[in-house]
């Protein structure tokens, strides 16, 4: 048990390593680091530290290790599963590790430090004539370290894969403070276990990512964004299959938006317009891109839409005539999570099922939720081309938000059982963190869970790296309970 005297001694040690300016202990300074993006969970910390180099991260971790103090890494703190909420100990904020160490045009790679904001990486890639394809609504504030720790997805996974597919090498500080230098830019390297994959997606529970080598791609020279309206998810999936067959890798994005989602954006965003004169049950936002400036994207898409109309898959479709119109379509998609907030509380699920089963999943699970609670407003949207749906449930109008949130676990069970019945995952792209930790034992293979615990214990025997997140080890944090 730490006493205030122990804490003061420990803080003095951190100040000796980093200088007083980079060890924050005042309540107002550490407050933003104690809550997660949706304010569903709040924690505590004795300090927030801001190391400026990998060597400083290592010294801080060594000090925490020696004093048995838990550590939680922070990037932009935009995570959506409570993974960054500290419960005691120290927050290690990586934002000062913001150097872009190298752009190797011949190898199509960029070496970056963990605290670089995703939008800065995208811009640097563009300036060098490349594309770094991860794109998220939080890209202006999330960091590459956080993207790697959560294996972030986004809207271009269909074409380029998740963050895991884009990382060639890593540098990380291990729980005992040693530095692993795996900053390789190789596309082939079978010299033993591929250790970087332990850190990618492990949400800071096995070590702290300090730098990475990222893959770059040829910059798109032509782009076409379009919006289509259909009678429901089955028709949207049929359109997706048609597009995938005809456009191949040129199909970069394929997102589903329900009518309720579009209505939310129209209601709360003065600049938003309905792309069609009549309403449809479901919409697709899609984008084709090519590194060839002359690629005949418009002719190809018009032909696909004509055939989809004839087959009854869509009722209408519109191609963005300008970048501004394309941005207006994207504004609808990106506003969905934001504008849901204006309608009260939401119970959110980030799940995936095989694409072949995603339409059945949507139709049947929406019906189950509607039968369970009169007036509930499902807003199931997202990356349907990856089988990844943000299955969000908005509270009935007029209901007390806390009363709705008290049903969090009840609706989790309904939705996640449907996911599991179709061979899906209850944590598709946001991670497990705190909010889903206690769902894993219901749905994940027990041998896989045991192996995860074995790895965690081997790498972090004192359970100091983000304890209580992803997997419960020993006497961990209590179960997440947003309803109070
Ligand atoms: C509006 C909005 C839209 C979003 N859209 C998407 C989306 O489309 N797809 C998607 O995948 N996610 C999305 N997210 C979730 C979030 O943005 C991503 O998970 C992002 O990658 C987190 O980055 P961050 O720097 O904010 O990480 P943080 O929130 O700071 O941390 C997230 C987790 O990673 C750990 N961590 C952070 N940095 C490090 C590090 N250097 N080393 C080890 N562990 C670390 C933390 O301890 C925590 O467990 C969205 C979030 C918001 C708010």
Molecular structure report:
The protein has helices spanning 4-18, 27-30, 54-67, 118-127, 144-150, 157-160, 196-199, 233-247, 259-268, 297-310, 323-340, 358-372, 401-405, 408-421, 440-443, 446-459, and strands spanning 23-24, 47-49, 71-74, 90-93, 100-104, 109-113, 130-131, 167-173, 179-182, 208-215, 217-218, 222-230, 251-258, 282-290, 316-319, 346-347, 350-352, 377-381, 388-394. It is an alpha+beta fold and 484 residues long. Among the domains are: 4-93, 2-Layer Sandwich (Uridine Diphospho-n-acetylenolpyruvylglucosamine Reductase, domain 2); 100-218, Uridine Diphospho-n-acetylenolpyruvylglucosamine Reductase, domain 3, CATH 3.30.465; 222-341, Alpha-Beta Plaits. A 5-stranded antiparallel beta sheet has the order 5-6-10-8-9. A 4-stranded mixed beta sheet has the order 1-2-4-3. Strands 13-14-12-15 form a 4-stranded antiparallel beta sheet, sandwiched between helices. A hairpin with a 6-residue loop joins strand 18 (377-381) and strand 19. The chain is globular and about 75 Å long. It binds flavin-adenine dinucleotide. Flavin-adenine dinucleotide is lined by residues 37, 72-80, 83-84, 94, 114, 136-138, 142-143, 145-147, 149-150, 152-154, 203-204, 208-209, 337, 429-430, 433, 466, 469. Residues 37, 72-80, 83-84, 94, 114, 136-138, 142-143, 145-147, 149-150, 152-154, 203-204, 208-209, 337, 429-430, 433, 466, 469 line the site of flavin-adenine dinucleotide.
